[in-house]
Amino acid sequence: MKNLNAIGLDSKKSALLAGQLNELLANYSIFYQNVRGYHWNIKGEKFFELHLKFEELYNDLLLKIDEVAERILTLGHSPNHKYSDYKKVSAIAESTQVSDGLKAVADILNSFKVIIGIQRNLLSLSAETNDEGTNALMSDYIRAQEKLVWMYSAFLKK
């Protein structure tokens, strides 16, 4: 029983999960700030539609950031919180100022590709660890984000 954490999971596997969750947290945080920038800087004929959609998306990302950080804490570890650390590990790069709606949506789709990939890896590791909490969280995120990918792709007519 020494090798179990407070919620009964293997401590070493939980540490691996927490590390991958911190990677997800970094990517979500950069993604969030990028979407805020798209929201602030969008111009053009689809301004009203995209301005609202980007606000919906960054509000959702903010909730996920909090949930991921709390899951790391639940596993008995500390969530990273510095953007300097996020920039070092994030596969999603900071966006330059983007006012073109089509470019912003394309960037969002690329970010979802990264995020969903990380979450699928976490889903696999959480299944091996018997961590139903992380597993359920990742499964819920993936299902909702796959729908968003479809919708944003339809917007771009891809």
Termini Cα gap: 52 Å
Beta content comes to: under 5%
CATH class: Mainly Alpha
Give the proportion of residues in helices: over 70%
Given the helix and strand composition, which structural class is it?
mainly alpha
Overall CATH architecture: Up-down Bundle
Number of extended strands: 0
Topology:
Elements: H1 11-41, H2 47-74, H3 83-89, H4 101-128, H5 132-155
Helix pairs in contact: 1-2, 1-3, 1-4, 4-5
Detailed description of the structure:
The chain has 158 residues and is mostly helical. The protein contains five helices and no strands. Helix 1 (11-41) runs antiparallel to helix 2, helix 1 packs across helix 3 (83-89) and helix 1 packs antiparallel against helix 4 (101-128).
